[in-house]
Write a structure and sequence with these properties.
With 162 residues, the chain is of the alpha+beta class. The chain has four helices and eight strands; from the N terminus they run E-H-H-E-E-E-E-E-E-E-H-H. The radius of gyration is 15 Å and the shape is globular. The N and C termini lie far apart (45 Å).
Amino acid sequence: MNTEAFKMTRDFDAPKEMVWRAWTEADLVQRWYGPGVETVIHEFEVKPGGLWLNEMRMGERSMNQRMEFTEVNPTDRLVMLMSNADENWEITANPMMPDWPRTLLTTVTLEDRDGGTRLMLSWDPHEATDAEEAAFAAAASDFNKGWGAGMNIIDEILAELS
């Protein structure tokens, strides 16, 4: 089984450098990542091998995520491995969806576009089992909602930064 990656394209009315900031400055990322939940960033080191340790608080519950940056090409491309994590930031299964892929390869590419910026996001199960790929495929129709809500907040952030 080889699941189709989730792909999203979004155009922003802002220069690439500004969109890059929205993805690489912890105080900005904390505002848009995980819309509708409280996002707490415990570590954020944007460099190859650097970690983004993220806690998403939903009332009494919280969920940890561990992202490892594998490629950082300033203002052009970010590649990271995104995983759920336990309290020690070790990769673990998703507590609410045990068949969810343990790791997702996430690629963000930025291009200059008509005075603005085109963002292309790809989200792909990484070294996934068949069950993990099936869980990812089954949830794919909802990905635009979450990522789209985050992109709408990035629009607001960019308007403030302008």
